[in-house]
What does this fold into?
Amino acid sequence: MKKNFRIEMVFTLIFAIIAFLIRQEFVSDVLYIIAYLIISFDILKKAIKNIFHGEIFDENFLMSIATLGALFIKEYPEAIAVMLLYKIGENFQSLAVGKSRNAIKELMEIKPDIANVKRNGNIDVVKPEEVQIDEIIVIKPGEKVPLDGVVVKGASMLDTKTITGESVPRTIKTNDLIYSGSINLNSVLEVKVTKKFENSTVSKILELVEDATSKKAKTEKFISKFARYYTPIVCILALLIATVPPIVFKMEFITCLYRALIFLVISCPCALVISVPLGFFGGIGGASKQGILIKGSNYLENLSKVDTVIFDKTGTITEGVFEIQKIVTNDISEDELIEIAAYGENFSNHPVAMAIRKKYAKKIEESQVNNLREISGKGVSANIFGKDTLIGNDKLLIENNVTFDEANEIGTIIYIAVDGQYKGYILIADTIKKESKKAIAQLKKENVKNIYMFTGDEAKIANKIAKLVGIDRCEAELLPDEKLKKLEQVLAKSSEKVIFVGDGINDSPCLARADIGIAMGAIGADAAIEAADVVIMDDKISKIKKAINISKKAMKIVKQNIIFAISVKIIILILGTLGMANMWLAVFADVGVSIIAILNSMRTLRE
It folds into this structure.
């Protein structure tokens, strides 16, 4: 509960209890009125403010006029109880909506602070915003790329996971395009700037999250929608009950006024105020027990209407961890091939090198490696165990006139040659999650019509993975803004709700823009988790189906509560109008309906 509400509730109950215990009528009445004003002040204030803005018939007006009516006929405990129940319901709704996502710390951390610009033979350190198109910037190892541009001198490896979401660093050489937000890993680069900072990739990512969040449709509260029609009808009927019988049937005005005020008190939708948000909140609680964190009741509702799911690849469909998938040898054992590769890659921090060393898992004697030379974009050459060795891609072997069998595999292929003789290759690739194929098949059984994959990875690799796990359509080699454009196209065509599932900083704009953004909580970036509407804490995409099922169950229960509460309410309103229901009967019926609705809502907590 919010701190202010806790304070209001405590003081309201204190004054109400003292008022109940005191037998002096005037003092008791004053204490009851004070208790009422404490709990209802902000609702009364909103109702008056909205009246001046032309918004008369909202839930604040209904709660105000009904409880003031109860005060008028001296049903003080009921006025206080009705308002207290309403405020508790509001509090549930507030909790369900969740915290705002205005500040995304991790996204801000990818923003480069400086740029080293070559001007008049010197290196000037300036803000990225001050650099002009066609100027030359120098990027040292370990520095963030401050602006988009083309490499004019140097070759290096770039960590691009903040931009593309891919774990493997990208080899960059002269004439290659590089994007701001990437990190230069090992060599100095000189880059000709092609875009100003405000148009750069990193700026786009920062802006896209804000824009996408503002575009997300907000589900209106059920009570607000209901009150648009219900409140004016109730108020008009109460007015007619108070005035028509005295004029037409010559009944006593005081009796009719009393019935009208009872009618207003009966009309307070307490059962709805409590049970509807509690139904959503119970669904959210039930999901959390399954390791699924849903940030608001509107997202829970949207999950029941999904017809399209879009997945990122790395860390979502795949593990995001590179491992040796296959070893092919030629006149050498697998153990010997791995040993040679591990010695040659001993000095590299590249994920591929780390995967090879992990497989070898033995101590490496550095004295056995001599004349190690890194050949940018191709691999390494070295003298290992006294033999000239080449470890790298097909270009390295072709350049050194080594005859070899080209592998037609999906992933990173490391060829190895010793003393000019081809010895085999090692295939290293991201591992597909064991449950991915089954989870996607389950979604299709849940009538999810469209399942897509949007990724920054190479098309060849992405299409192969999509085919293996049963994904209908794959869009590859996408930057964050391109992913968002593709998502916008899907949203425009979809008649139902669209889910986007991702884990990286680069997924944040899509997670914020989709009807429901789902982030992987265990390995996901903080920015992705913050931008998402739903977080799966153990990264199991099978939980998406579970979340949809929980949502459908919660919505079914909420609809049951709405129909039940309204039906009973109408019956009691009719009895009250005919003078067949007094205040206590009305309150008893309302509380009874509330209890039944609450107990029904609690079923959403069970799977």
Summary: Residues 543-577 form the longest helix (35 residues). Residues 96-107, 212-220 have pLDDT under 50 and may be disordered. The chain is about 50% helix and 20% strand. Residues 68 and 212 are 43 Å apart (CA to CA).
